[in-house]
């Protein structure tokens, strides 16, 4: 099971490295959509969540030398 989780993490890293900019843009769009649907009542919380998710994608996408 540990090997399966390790493989999953490696696959996520590969995807983030190859498509991080698209994922980040998608997260931004989803955040904007949710913000609109909640009548901007939770804008700060949504922005924080999007920023953290984008940071995680960026971290996953960093090349390991």
TrEMBL record:
Domain of life the protein comes from: Bacteria
Query: Which InterPro entries does the entry link to?
Result: Antitoxin_Rv0909/MT0933
Quote the protein name from its UniProt record.
Antitoxin
Native organism: Streptomyces albospinus
């Amino acid at each position: 099971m540990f090997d399966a989780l390790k493989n999953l993490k490696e696959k996520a890293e590969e995807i983030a490295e190859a498509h991080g900019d698209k994922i980040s843009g998608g997260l931004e769009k989803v955040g904007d959509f949710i913000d609109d649907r909640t009548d901007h009542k939770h804008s700060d919380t949504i922005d924080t969540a999007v920023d953290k998710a984008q940071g995680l994608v960026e971290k996953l996408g960093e090349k390991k030398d």
